Amino acid sequence: MEKKILVAEDEKNIANIIAYNLKNDGYKVFCAYDGQEALDLFESEKPDLVLLDIMMPKINGFDVCKQIRKKSQVSIIMLTARADEVDKVLGLELGADDYVTKPFSVNELMARVKANLRRSDNNCESNIVSFGDIKIDFNRYEVFCNDKMISLTPKEFDLLKFLAIHPNKIFNREELLNKVWSYEYFGDARTVDVTVRRLRMKVEKTPDDPKFILTKRGVGYYFNFKK
Q1: Domains, the chain, ranges and CATH?
Q2: In this predicted structure, what is the pLDDT of residue 120?
């Protein structure tokens, strides 16, 4: 089944270029030119990924991201002309999985799209592992804490999965960008820090004193598991 992508971008020439290349790669594309239209199309079309510009009329990209995250964990890639790190971090804090700063190359954008859509087949046989109170179903992209399902974004799940299958091994930020966001990722270390913080807020009983996702000061992050 072809993947559906929503392109929310108020500059029509940019939206058309993005849509053209996505369609050439076999995706079904819907374009929105303001924030309200993006939310309406999201409701009606249920896309698999959203490319979301920050500076849009009616409703800005940050608020659109917040509205989408209230009801869905679909992959979101923020598009921004702003180089300010605060804007990038804010987008990640609100639940975006990735961001691309304009101007960007088509090849870079396509690589980000493919990396964020690279998900396991939900129909595969379950493969569940348990770590204390946490249970992870790798094939169904589901996480349970004390038997209660925890809603994670795709990138949050990918990070948790990667750390969990390499218990007690420390990875620095650059290694995690390479392994989790894919080798084609052109990001920075703050992306990892923000995603780890979001993940701790969801799966740790006490996020400020985590039990599973730990930091080795000056080195990186690791999943703490003692047999």
Answers
A1: 4-117 (3.40.50.2300), 128-223 (1.10.10.10)
A2: 35
